[in-house]
Amino acid sequence: SIQLSASRPVRPAISAAIVTGCGAWATHSILLLAFAPGVPVAYHAGLTVLAGVVAVLGCGIGFYIARGTERMALGGAIAGFSIGAMHYIGTAALMLQAQVQQDILYDQAAILIGASFGAAALSRARLTPDLRGRIAGAIYLSIGICGTYFVGMAGLTLMPDPSIVIPQDTLVIVWFAIALTAIVLLILGLGVVGALVD
Fold it and tell me: What predicted TM-score, i.e. pTM, was given to this entire model?
């Protein structure tokens, strides 16, 4: 569903945006669940959901621009930028017994990686409109998603602070894992439907 064309209806771009945005959010969330900082951790439910919404809407806008105007690099960059925004909103949802510091250079590099590989993904899929182009585009987009996460997390410094109280109304890890499983199943289902439609 990465290959886009202005002559086709916008509907397949919606399923592509949901699959890509939810896929990026699920990847980010699974990696955050695996993150073991050595201090108590919880997740802010509202920010966690907002991160996923931003990823889906941003990818939708990017794919719509790429599809409707043939500006593949611009559309891909917007989709990649939205994935970077999702990462930082999702990271802000982390509630830790620690003081958190971010390195601005790593933050800028993470956003640049997401936008650059997003632009490269859609441009490559457009230049080679066959299975090879789709695979190459998917690989570029995956590198952008993972690169954004790992570079962004590399710039994160934690200083344990047991005086910080984690609120009780946070997202329970078990329910978070169940929600992630449901999202992955949604991605698989929409991926199949998207492949049949486009």
Answer: 0.80
